[in-house]
Write a structure and sequence with these properties.
The protein is built from 3 helices and 17 strands. The chain folds into 3 domains: 127 residues, Nucleoside Triphosphate Pyrophosphohydrolase (Alpha-Beta Complex), CATH 3.90.79; 31 residues, no CATH class; 134 residues, Nucleoside Triphosphate Pyrophosphohydrolase (Alpha-Beta Complex). It starts with a strand and ends with a helix. It is an alpha+beta fold. A hairpin with a 2-residue loop joins strand 12 and strand 13. The structure holds zinc ion. The site of zinc ion has 8 residues, from loops.
Length: 296
């Protein structure tokens, strides 16, 4: 088992995805597996709450049938594989659990959360591209790259990435945060939305903000990006300034939005998320940003 250790705020270790789907060898005893049952991943949780993913040697403890195994690449020097499982409610050995990947966020170090998320995206892609979208024939894995292809019409299918913008909007010393109807808890976050086909990121930002809260923004600046594996988003973060309009929420996605000062923020998203980083950036830069505003 690989143990989670080291508290790190940025990634020092990642799953290096191999371009090829052909594993260099058969899995060694130290190869480890990211095994998913829908959104749930198989983890070992020790009595002192240390989490680990299964190694090849752990798999013999399970009677489960592995489906669609896929060579992913390497974490450090270890080979990594992904698969689904048909567990059919079979009993699970002691200290092993199926856990919703998102629910692991508060429990594991960030490197491992992103590594598992990356594995999830590839396993999920492979699961949903078993048949050709054009002619319906079964697909095959390409050996030389992470793709499937149709043996009949030769169409290729690559892992899907859905770009989404996320934006921290500032008005003097306040930030716009909103509560979405889909949020399970009463927390507030920055606005976000998926990019439509044929739309630039800037057009998408203006449209989403206008649709969701009814205001106009200006001075859009790139902030950073973050893959978000639920199921295959790429969050592209921006900062922007309020230009005009009054907050009027759409009541379909957002049920409340308001301007918040840095010393009076509502409950916030998980620390791993780019939304949280955008809010941290607002808090850190509030006095500086005010000066810049007056110059501009
Ligand atoms: Zn086809």
């Amino acid at each position: 088992m690989l143990i989670f250790q080291n508290s790190i705020l940025y990634l020092t270790m990642t799953l290096e995805i191999s371009p090829s789907t052909a594993a260099p060898n058969s899995p060694s005893a130290e190869s480890y597996w990211f095994i998913f049952d829908e959104n749930k991943v198989l983890v070992h949780i020790s009595e002192n709450q240390v989490l680990a993913f299964p190694l090849q040697t752990d798999l013999q403890k399970f009677d489960y049938q592995i489906v669609n195994p896929l060579y992913l690449g390497k974490v450090a020097e270890f080979e990594a594989y992904g698969a689904e499982i048909k567990k059919e409610d079979l009993p699970i050995p002691e200290n092993w659990e199926w856990r919703d990947l998102r629910s692991l966020m508060p429990m594991i170090e960030s490197d491992w959360f992103w590594i598992a998320g990356k594995a999830f995206q590839f396993v999920n892609w492979f699961k949903t591209h078993q048949y050709c979208g054009q002619c319906g024939s079964p697909t095959m894995l390409k050996k030389e790259e992470k793709a499937t292809y149709c043996q009949k019409c030769n169409l290729s299918f690559y892992p899907r990435v859905s770009p989404a913008v996320i934006v921290a909007i500032r008005k003097n010393d306040q930030i716009l945060l909103a509560h979405a109807l889909r949020f399970p808890q009463k927390f507030y976050s920055t606005l976000a939305g998926f990019v439509e086909a044929g739309e630039s990121l800037e057009e998408c930002l203006r449209r989403e903000v206008r649709e969701e809260v009814g205001i106009e923004i200006k001075n859009i600046q790139y902030f950073g990006s973050q893959p978000w594996a639920f199921p295959h988003s790429l969050m592209i973060g921006f900062k922007a300034e309020y230009e005009s309009g009054e907050i009027k929420v759409d009541q379909t996605e957002i049920d409340h939005a308001d301007w918040f000062k840095a010393d009076n923020l509502p409950v916030r998203p998980n620390r791993f998320s780019i939304a949280s980083q955008l809010i941290d950036d607002f808090v850190k830069n509030t006095p500086v940003f005010e000066n810049e505003l007056s110059i501009g």
